[in-house]
């Protein structure tokens, strides 16, 4: 039974920021199409208005189980899928949407969010299959092709990703994250000049956003560190931290720069903050261990190196959570 499934798996970490697209809210305008009785519709509207997702899920799943193979059942399941997604229950959302899709094809928004659920569950092949359908049904929309390129990047298929991203940019020359991802691909293809060019384009477009992202600046900073342009890298990280002061990756890269410049106190401060902001982030602990070793603090150095090794081992051993077979 759908309602019995409550496992929520986490996607494996990506080299890219985990910035999955998702609906900001659920469309409640068509609740009349669900053919609920007046009392139940009022309860559903109230639950959704309060963001009481478990109550809304229970109503929709119970109604769907009473009418499992009809067009109405598909609508109930599709709405349940969106609410499960907002509730962080990605397994449940995938099951609900696939059950709905077996009755009637999903609408475009639901299929895309199903792909995002699969990405969060580290089921990238399944996400790719849904995105391929969207590219065929809506070839004019670059977002779906962009996410296929993201999956190529995760799979280290950088040449394929580059080809897709170039097409995305032809379709939408102002898609900032396409340039940023293209820069990352060129980094791995050992084309630093192309990488830097695309990072700079991403940074310029990013500054025009209503809510600029710190990520293009962090990616550009990493590239600048690689060519020893430390002050330029530091300026980019300072800007990134103005956009998000709690981004651990920005603090970590700032710590790297300060260590390279011999400012060990500043580096320790930045790296400690990075570790505090994300307790599962291994790299700051390795850098902290290295600095403590240089400062002659063997006990702290050993402790940080042990923590780094523990976190790396946990990341490598983290299994995929299986998704139950759909009935």
Question: How does this structure look, described?
Answer:
With 327 residues, the protein is mainly alpha-helical. Among the domains are: 38-133, Tetratricopeptide repeat domain (Serine Threonine Protein Phosphatase 5, Tetratricopeptide repeat, Alpha Horseshoe); 246-317, Serine Threonine Protein Phosphatase 5, Tetratricopeptide repeat (Alpha Horseshoe). Helices cover 68% and strands 0% of the residues. The protein has helices spanning 38-49, 53-66, 71-86, 90-103, 108-120, 124-137, 142-154, 158-171, 176-188, 192-206, 215-226, 230-243, 248-260, 264-277, 283-294, 298-317. The protein is globular and about 70 Å long. The N and C termini lie close together (9 Å).
